[in-house]
Each structure stands twice: as structure tokens, then as C-alpha cells.
Amino acid sequence: MENYTRTTVTEFFLRGFPTLLEMQILLFAFFLVAYILTVSENVIIIVIIQLNSKLKKPMYYFLSNLACLEIFYISVTVPNLLVNVLRESKTISFNGCITQLYLFISLMCTECVLLAVMAFDRYVAVCHPLRYATIMHYNFCLQLSALSWIAGFSISLIKIYFISRLSFCGPNIINHFFCDISPVLNLACIDMSEAEMVDFILALVILLVPLLVTVVSYLYIIHAILKISSIKGKKKAFSTCASHLTVVIIFFSTTLFMYARPKKAKSVDGNKLISLFYAVFTPMINPFIYCLKNKEVRASIKKYFCCK
Fold it and tell me: What is the pTM for the complete model shown?
């Protein structure tokens, strides 16, 4: 195997969820509904924010970015999964697999940074309300948003560079429903310790640094809320952070458990279930969280659809 100097595998077989035909049809229906629902929810949020002048605030600008990201996020994996559920040959080309892997990692890394940016926005709003408009001006928000996307796609490019240098000479069966890092690395037929180390270190950096920014921001937020004398004031201050904090807990708990642990602690079937949660369920429930926890978004949606 050490004699291979180039990639010999031209396509991969995605095992997905091997079940009976009846279950395959149910899976197809479930994933189709989840995909349509996720895209529709996030499109509605983007449209509502653009149409309502009261939502022209930094917080909702970042929320629009997050909604856009969620649409791309689920579109990277689920459409291909829908095709593979119903067809017998569940294959994906080598280039298609690497592209899917790059886009998925990029969007995940982008979300890590974007959630930290949103936490900083909430910190400024709660701890420095009088200076909020001055600090979080449009150009600064645009720069923070661009930083999130550039950082996410740049870090994942480094990961993909080391993975693409590996040789894949068989077998070519990926025990997953999309091309994720661990299942792809397991198929390399040369020493992959360097690629695994780079992946593990970058995963820690892109997860722990934004998480640290988020935790520090919320420590300051909690300290500021505790200093508010009235209970009504405390509830009002906390309500502006509740939806974001819920999304942060769900996202970082699953991604840290999935990517920031040694390879020996991972199980293939467990990985598929966790991946299913953050690749399909999380983009689907995030809009509900923001709508249910945020009065302004909820009121805007009701007003818009009632008028229509």
C-alpha cells in the first residue's frame, strides 16, 4: 500500500441507514419533510427581518446570517441523502465526497465563529446599552460577519488539504450517510496520523476559542443582569439572550462531543446518530427556538401573515 502515490479510488459507497424497503420510504419522507421545513423556516426568518424596519438591528443581521448558513448547512447533506435512500447504488464520486466534506466542515466552523460573534453582540447590548449603537455600527457588524465566513472556510481548507494528500486504494465503503472526517480518514491506505493530528488540533481551536468568547461574554452578561434591581428588568435583559444561549448549548455540546475527542472513543453507529442530530435536527429546530423565545420576531411573523 505504501507504493501508491496517487488516489486510486474514484468513488465511495455511502452505507447510510441500511433497512427494509418500507423503512427506506419512511426515511425518505422524514428527511424530505425535514429539509422542506428547515429551508422554509429559515427563508421566512430572512424575509421577515428584511421586510420589518424594526428588525434592522445588529442582532437580527447576525440572525439572518445564521438562517442563511442553516439553509446551506442542511443542503450540503440532505439532498444527496434523499437520492441515496431510494436508489440501490448509493455512490458519490471522490471529488464530490471531498467537496461535500469541505463545505460541511466550512459551514460548521463558520457557525462556531458566528455564534461567538452573536454572544459578543449580546454582551455589548446588556453590559453597554448606551454605547451599543456606537460600537455595533453597520460596518463593524459587516466585518464580524465576514470574519465568521472567512475563518470557517479558511480553517476547513487546511483540513481538506491534509486529507486530500492521503491515498485511498480500497475499500471504498463509508459507513455514514454523508462524507464526514472520521469515516473518510478510516479508508486511507497510508499513515494518516498527520492528517488526524491536524484535524484534531484545528477542531479544538475552532471550537474552543469561539466557545471561550461565548462563555466569557455570558459571564459578564450574568454579572450585569444580577446587578439589575427589578425582577422585571432582569427578565427583560435575559429574554434578549435566551434564544441564542439555547442554540449555543445545543450546538457546542454536540460538536464538541463529536469532533473534540480522541478517535478511540468514537463508535461508528453512535457517530451517525449524533451527526443526524446536528446535521438535520439542529437546523430544523433553531428557527423554532428563535421564534418562540424572541418576542419581536414572533410578533413580526404574526403581523406579516395576518396582514397577508
Answer: 0.87
